[in-house]
Amino acid sequence: MSCLFRNVLGFRHLAIYNVCMVNSASKGLGEIIKQQRNSMSLSLSKLAIMSGVSQSHLHKIEQGKRFPSAITLKKIAKPLGLQESELFMLAGYLSLVTPIEIENIKRSPYMKGLDPYVATVLAEEPIEVQRAVITILGILRSLSKRIREE
């Protein structure tokens, strides 16, 4: 297992994690999957058999021509010796929110009742985007209410 994987996927030190995430983002998820497969001494065909994902699809993921779905990541995690959540984070399906960030969000009067991940993502967006999201949510809520009344 490469240094990148021990540090990123072990989550031993948040600082190392952040540095490695920048490196892994620039390399691309497909290359990371390929590196892990090679470090486990798995051929592409062996991974395909073990995971139930076609060899051609895996090859396209490794080449960066396709982005894997959460279902595909779930299938390949165990054969690669990884936890599903590790691959989900590398793919951007999950975000690491530290316990300190969660506590700060919980204490904020503006974020009361808001999911910590949602609050963190929204907080990083410009005010105009935040307001657009609220407007869209209002429209969806209104449509949902109308559908239920019918």
Provide the fold topology.
Elements: H1 3-10, H2 14-27, H3 29-39, H4 44-51, H5 55-62, H6 70-77, H7 84-91, H8 99-107, H9 116-123, H10 127-149
Helix pairs in contact: 1-2, 4-6, 6-7, 8-9
Notes on the protein architecture:
This protein has ten helices and no strands. It is 70% helix and 0% strand. The protein has two domains: 89 residues, lambda repressor-like DNA-binding domains (434 Repressor (Amino-terminal Domain), Orthogonal Bundle), CATH 1.10.260; 51 residues, no CATH class.
Low-confidence stretches: 1-26
User: What's the end-to-end separation, in Å?
Assistant: 57 Å
Q: Can you name the CATH architecture of the largest domain? A: Orthogonal Bundle
What's the CATH H-level superfamily name of the largest domain?
Answer: lambda repressor-like DNA-binding domains
How much of the sequence lies in strands comes to: under 5%
Number of strands: 0
Task: List the helices and strands in order.
Answer: HHHHHHHHHH
Look at the structure and give the mean pLDDT.
75
Structural class: mainly alpha
